[in-house]
Amino acid sequence: MKRAENSDGQTTDHRVNEATANSILSARRRLIILALVFLIALGVRLLNWHDAGNDALAVQSSVALNYKHLAELLRTNGLSSLYDKSSTTSNPDLLGHPPGYPILLSVIYSIAGESAGATQLLQITLDSVSVVIIMLIAFELVPAPVGLIGGLMAAFAPQFSWNSLTLLPDSLSSLPILLALLLIARSLKKPTWLSLLLAGALIGVSVWLRANALLLAPFVALIFLFSSRRERRLPAALALVAGALLVIAPLTIRNALVFGKFIPVSLGAGQTLLEGLADYNSDGSLGLPATDQELLRGEADTFQRPDYANSLFTPDGVARDRARVARGVAVIRTHPIWFFGVMLRRAASMLRLERTPLRLSSPSAGLIGRQVRLVQKLFITVIFLPLVLLGAALLAYRREFQKLALLLVVPFYYFCTQSALHTEYRYVLVIHYFLFMLAGVAVYSIACKILIARRMYREAVS
Asked: Which of 60, 170, 271, 410 has the least C-beta neighbours within 10 A?
């Protein structure tokens, strides 16, 4: 009996050691896969940078100059000048965007000088890290091959490469959101307040770069109200929201101290709302301004203030922006069905893949560059949208609703919120990381069906 016990004990120990070894081996394989995909993503972006880096500098050049100007002021006046109402850093004309990107630029300029190349190199590196993070999210939810397929899609996607080259914060703002969703995916089974607080804080960091994610934390918190144990639901949701509020609060406090008004992050919602509505009022029947210049001229005439024609926010920036919001809301209130149609059209437009000007066809691109171009030419809506819809349908059919919710919560947030305002592809860049993973689900399922069919055919023939 003692021998049998020893034998059973040795067998159990052997099984435990074998399971541990397999786990370590699996972890090493995943680490190697992640490293390889990161290098592929970085290589693709470096090729695109070499071929089209200067072209990307012309994108939204006036907005980029605004960011650069604030960065130079921060270098000169210091970060504390953001809270000094008498400082040139607190010019209302610089309140159209959050200060996170200028702060980052000021750090880069302090280290590498005012180098666009250094900024682009940092952005393409961090964008390659984003590819790794979406793979880690996928590894928490779906089979590893799905994560690999989706990761390779994100690595080669010309949309990501192009936007990481512009001197704008759009690609950078995706990374903290992806990190937050990774923490949330790992917290669903056993949420801890610290990890969720950090996840919320990361969403707050994204808001410092772009204000679009302002309401993302409470939106994502809804997942816990349906997926966690009853006693953990409310604490988990509150921890996530609290983390975001703690990081965003310094912006709101700064605006209250400097401008004496409640401005959660930045100004510009009214301008964006009106011009966004004008985009869909092609006959001009609503009398809305389609451009900044039209808006400024209209306000100067309406209020009999010629000085309003010189700037969006100086003078009376807060009051003017709120008046713009009120005007837009009045249009929506009187044309609700039309506006609902506008929102649907905008949401549908977010599913389209941007046509980028990346070329990789010049002789200097070389053989590898030309092969990358062939792959990138496949990234068109007519190919990827059916795969995304099929992947979502497959997860719903398998009743894997929690996985589907985690992959769709960020896209659905932007469908609901950004569709109410003017939108561009770069504003909703982050949703395509998740959509590529849904496309990966479809590709993996199709590949499995093909392999099974081939095996059955071979068995039938033999």
From this structure: 60
